[in-house]
């Protein structure tokens, strides 16, 4: 915590589970360094289907992304991923990994940076190798056609 954080606020506050889950999704679509309109739309659709966000308005979800972007600008996407992984409860960690894999693999191409991100997020979330492999295999099948 910096000397002025008490007065000016800090971007490194803890995240709620909803913020953490959204943070993992944001990092996934930004993993290759570019966020396309299709990726942003896919992110909105993915989160919109989840019970975690069912009671939230668009304004609430926008506030979540504003907070995450603030952290990303000040501390980088690595910090967003670290905070997000810590905020997601154990029961949703495999779900968060599956969602990240789906967002990354949706366009049918997985760049080297995206593969590296998948490995990092898997480790950060603590998803076991056999489980992660199953998830990626199923997502690859889902996105074939």
What is the alpha-carbon Rg in Å? 15 Å
Largest sheet: none
- Secondary-structure arrangement, i.e. CATH architecture: Orthogonal Bundle
* DSSP strand count: 0
- Topology-level CATH name: TerB-like
Structural class based on helices, strands and sheet pairing: mainly alpha
CATH class: Mainly Alpha
Query: Would you tell me the overall average pLDDT?
Result: 88
Number of helices: 8
What is the element string, with H for helices and E for strands? HHHHHHHH
- State the domain count: 1
Overall 3D form: globular
Q: What distance lies between the first and last C-alpha atoms, to the nearest angstrom?
A: 48 Å
Low-confidence spans: none
Question: Overview of this structure, please?
Answer:
The chain is mostly helical and 145 residues long. It has one domain (16-142): TerB-like, CATH 1.10.3680. It has helices at 5-8, 17-30, 37-48, 58-75, 77-87, 93-105, 112-125, 129-142. The radius of gyration is 15 Å and the shape is globular. It starts with a helix and ends with a helix.
Short overview:
The chain has helices at 5-8, 17-30, 37-48, 58-75, 77-87, 93-105, 112-125, 129-142.
Entry keywords:
145 residues; mainly alpha; TerB-like; 8 helices; globular
Blueprint (SSEs and pairs):
Blueprint: H1 5-8, H2 17-30, H3 37-48, H4 58-75, H5 77-87, H6 93-105, H7 112-125, H8 129-142
Helix pairs in contact: 2-3, 2-4, 2-5, 2-6, 4-5, 6-7, 6-8
């Amino acid at each position: 915590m910096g000397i002025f954080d008490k007065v000016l606020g800090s971007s490194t506050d803890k995240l709620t589970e909803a913020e953490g889950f959204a943070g993992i999704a944001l990092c996934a679509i930004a993993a290759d360094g570019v966020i396309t309109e299709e990726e942003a739309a896919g992110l909105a659709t993915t989160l919109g289907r989840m019970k975690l966000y069912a009671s939230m308005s668009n304004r609430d979800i926008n506030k979540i992304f504003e907070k995450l972007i603030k952290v990303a600008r000040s501390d980088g996407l690595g910090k967003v991923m670290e905070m997000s992984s810590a905020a997601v409860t154990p029961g949703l960690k495999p779900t968060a990994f599956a969602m990240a894999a789906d967002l990354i693999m949706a366009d049918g191409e997985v760049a080297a940076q995206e593969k590296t991100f998948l490995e990092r997020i898997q480790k950060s979330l603590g998803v076991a190798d056999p489980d992660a492999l199953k998830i990626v295999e199923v997502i690859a099948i889902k996105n074939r056609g």
